[in-house]
Design a protein that fits this description.
mainly alpha, Cytochrome p450, 3-stranded mixed sheet, 3-stranded antiparallel sheet, 8 strands, 6% strand, binds protoporphyrin IX containing FE
Length: 431
């Protein structure tokens, strides 16, 4: 294994010599449950996935759907829960609530189905928890020899057992959703409302375009595709938001500045409810944007990336790597390096993301790879910022959050950087 935090190496691997560092068979083995989804494939199939997903996500109708879906879930699911907990002075796990929020919103967005995991009684839905349970197994697969985890998988023991159960739970949720949506589309094709342009349609077309015949059945392909997108959009955003509130608890002056920025830029008075703003308006929240980037610098949701070169190569640092080298890019360590961030690297400073002209400072992605870098840069970055701004502005303006036992906060040992055992908080209503 070769670990590197050198940003020139990161640039080389993720961008300059991209074709020598595919996801490859090693990655596919570790993340086998992702099947033929975008995260797991290379070459033409990846290009087709990327083109299809990008064309949907950059569509004007998608932007409208995104705004409507997010605010709908905030108003019908998220706020009623916070209001109820505030009324009863209940201590609850904010990370769990945020995960439910991102799960419901991504399911509604992709499949037009709201699982309503954000109900007042916080129901236990095995498929909603499935992702979290699966993640620790992925990290272990990076560390223990392949034959060991394969044996554990075969015996259905340890983290491998959790992973199998998580996939079964997820499949029981996703297959009926896909079938329902397919039936709906077949029956009402002519009466589909304009804004209901469907992800599903685009991926069915993609499947039909693919001639190699190695994608399995249409149902399996759609399952893989949606599994990947839900995996991409659920825990990443909720983990970042959870860490954001842990950092704000330690930096009240930053919270005050965010509150003032919300009032000024969104023209909302201190005693008025903040109910809606568009994606375009969210771009004005520059300091909040800086605070979210600063959060992802300390706690990149995906804490590492792993690559195996196709061919021998010499990295900019002078190190030789070969197809036998497993290269680990520890994004979480990069965010804390003095050579990259200076002497004040351990301070939470949203200002470092603001340019002299008051806009958002451009920081190259090979220095800040929280959203990856190069041709495989995250496709949901803009969506994630919008989602994170809606949730954080709603909470900061309308409520006061108090973290209970902040000294007990530590990260999970997982490729997804979450707060171990959740983030226990109390909430009070401000307006
Ligand atoms: C704070 C939130 C997010 C973070 C930190 C994040 C980070 C990342 C990272 C590091 C990758 C590269 C993973 C790899 O190649 O192994 C990635 C890829 C991706 N992300 Fe995100 N992501 C976030 C939210 C989202 C959201 C909301 C979506 C929307 C569905 C999304 C969609 C994707 C997709 C489709 C890819 C695959 C790109 C490709 O391989 O070409 N992400 N993201």
């Amino acid at each position: 294994m070769f670990f590197t935090c050198d940003s020139a190496n990161i640039h080389h691997i993720l961008s300059k010599n991209f074709s020598n560092y595919p996801k490859g068979s090693e990655y596919r083995k570790i993340f086998d449950v992702l099947g033929n989804g975008i995260f797991n494939v290379d070459d033409e199939l990846w290009e087709l996935h990327r083109k299809t997903t990008m064309s949907i996500m950059s569509h004007a109708k998608f932007q409208i759907l995104l705004e409507r879906t997010m605010w709908d879930i905030i108003e019908k699911g998220f706020r009623p829960i916070l209001d109820a907990f505030a009324k009863h002075g209940k201590i609850f796990d904010l990370q769990d609530v945020l995960q439910r929020f991102t799960f419901d919103s991504i399911a509604k967005l992709l499949l037009d189905h709201d699982p309503r995991s954000l109900s007042i009684d916080l129901p236990y839905l095995p498929y909603e928890k499935a992702f979290g349970d699966a993640l620790e197994a992925f990290l272990l697969r990076h560390i223990v020899p392949e034959r060991i985890w394969k044996l554990q998988k075969w015996l259905r023991i340890g983290k491998e057992k959790q992973l199998i159960q998580a996939c079964e739970a997820f499949d029981q949720f996703i297959y009926p959703c896909i079938s329902r949506k397919q039936e709906e589309l077949m029956m009402h094709k002519s009466t589909i409302k304009d804004e209901e342009f469907a992800f599903l349609d685009a991926y069915v077309t993609m499947y039909n375009q693919w001639n190699d015949g190695d994608l399995g059945t249409l149902q399996t392909f759609l399952r893989d595709t949606f599994f990947n997108l839900m995996f991409a959009g659920r825990d990443t955003t909720s983990a970042a938001l959870t860490w954001f509130f842990t950092l704000l608890a330690k930096n009240p002056s930053a919270e005050k500045r965010i509150r003032e920025e919300i009032q000024q830029q969104l023209h909302v008075k201190e005693d008025e409810n903040l109910k809606f703003f568009t994606k375009e308006e969210s771009r004005k929240l520059i300091y909040l944007h800086g605070a979210l980037c600063e959060t992802l610098r300390f706690f990149p949701s995906l804490s590492l990336e792993h690559k195996v070169p196709l061919d021998h190569d010499i990295l900019p640092s002078g190190h030789h790597v070969s197809p036998n080298t497993r290269i680990i890019l520890p994004f979480s360590a990069m965010g804390r390096m003095e050579t990259l961030w200076g002497k004040d690297r351990l301070e939470f400073k949203p200002e470092r993301w603001i340019s002299d002209r008051g806009g958002i400072r451009h920081v190259p992605s090979f220095k800040f790879p929280a959203f990856n870098a190069g041709p495989r840069t995250c496709l949901g970055k803009e969506m994630a910022f919008f989602q994170m701004k809606i949730v954080s502005a709603t909470i900061i303006h309308n409520y006061h959050i108090q973290v209970v036992e902040p000294e007990n906060i530590s990260p999970t040992t997982s490729i997804m950087m979450k707060v171990k055992n959740g983030l226990m908080v109390k909430v009070a209503k401000k307006v």
